[in-house]
Amino acid sequence: MGNIFDEENLYPYEGVIKEHFEDHYDSVFIALLPFFQLDRKETDKANLKKAKLLSHEEALKEIDLIKKLPEVNREIYSYDNDRYPADEEIFRKAKVTPWKNIVNGSTLTGYAELNTALRTSIGGLNRNFTRPDLMEKLNNYTDSESIYHPTEGAFGMLSKMAIYKAFKLLGRNEIMITDEFYEQTSTVDLDRLTEYGFCDQIGGKDYYLYSADKEILFTIEWDSFFFLIATDHKKMDKLIANDLFEGFLCNDKTEHYWEYTLE
Prior knowledge:
By secondary structure, this protein is of the alpha+beta class. 31% of the residues lie in helices and 18% in strands. The protein has 9 helices and 11 strands. The strands form 3 sheets. A 7-stranded antiparallel sheet has the order 7-6-8-9-10-1-11. A two-stranded antiparallel sheet has the order 2-5. It has a two-stranded antiparallel ribbon with strand order 3-4. Helix 4 crosses helix 6 (132-145) and helix 7 (157-169) packs across helix 8.
């Protein structure tokens, strides 16, 4: 595949994931963005998601471009939900709710259906693949249990906390942070940062995190509820043994749209 760092090609949008990374890493893990709960006396169930579906009237108020377009049957989502918990509250108070618990409680059959339900909930699927029935199962359960949904296409606070622990576990303290379009790369020293300080360094469009020696990479793309961890099998075994991330290892056939081929 060539040098994915020099070629600015750190995410495998197409093809087999392991083949994309084969010149650099022999092990790749699909890490699921966690759901979470907060210890609150009352939870506004209308704000369990960062994204919210706008009515046509709401869309007209928020997006000027809509006024110039004919009214058609379209779904428009806004991510300007300021009642979704802030990062600091998540850092201090959130308790992870694993995907496996969501599957068991919602009667979804597994990770694949849950991922499809999540992608349906943000309008991220072609109409031929959308599954409102799965989304309804998911929403009914998370609403009943006051469980917050992860936000797609970004390393959320809980994932950043786990990534910090992973770098420290592997003894990697010089970390590179690169944005989605490879326009800016910054370097941080974990020895000089608290866990929260590290998390605060990573913005919503910082899609690539890796050690300065490039021996471990965390990479995400804009429409996914998961990210990839790429490293060698010995380091991967150590991460898995410490139970920092929920997910599964890629096999020789796993692709970006793994929910259609997951066995």
